[in-house]
Write a structure and sequence with these properties.
160 residues; alpha+beta; two-stranded antiparallel ribbon; 6 strands
């Protein structure tokens, strides 16, 4: 079974930050900087709440940013939209500190409220994932840029 940390990061990466960027939603680059990615089939949907196909995953992997990212060479976790995180000594609480200055496409700031909403929405809309996340006891917003994930017990906890 994957570690709780890995599941949290992957879940939140796939949902939380679909439209975030640190430039306040202003387009970056020019037409010459356009990235083209050829797919042999069209994705059924780009909504991460309901997509299950390979092609949607390929597109989402190019446009969605998560709380943490994994180095492709070392497999070590590094910061992304969370600038840091801490794990309690008992391994039951993961505290993510979010980067400030990140904005949604409409210019609104990205905050811990967005992370909690994403987590709550994902569980509500995808009961099949409930088994993977059943050990999450609660999600607590400490302040606009800090969120805690509290687990019921440490049986499945594998620290990063």
């Amino acid at each position: 079974m994957k570690s709780n940390f890995t599941l949290l990061v992957l879940l939140l990466a796939s949902l939380t930050l679909v439209s975030c960027n640190k430039d306040g939603g202003k387009p970056r680059g020019s037409a010459e900087d356009t990235f083209n990615f050829n797919l042999t089939q069209q994705p059924t949907t780009l909504n991460p709440l309901s997509s299950t196909d390979f092609y949607a995953t390929q597109v989402q992997s190019q446009v969605i940013e998560g709380l943490a990212t994994r180095d492709v060479d070392t497999y070590e976790w590094g910061p992304a939209l969370a600038k840091s995180w801490e794990v309690s000594d008992d391994g039951l609480t993961y505290t993510f500190t979010l980067r400030e200055g990140v904005k949604w496409h409409d210019g609104k700031p990205f905050t811990a409220e967005d992370v909690k909403f994403t987590f709550d929405t994902f569980i509500a809309k995808n009961p099949n994932w409930e088994g993977y996340l059943k050990d999450v006891k609660k999600v607590v917003i400490e302040n606009p840029y800090q969120i805690l994930f509290k687990f019921k017990d440490g049986k499945n906890v594998e620290l990063p």
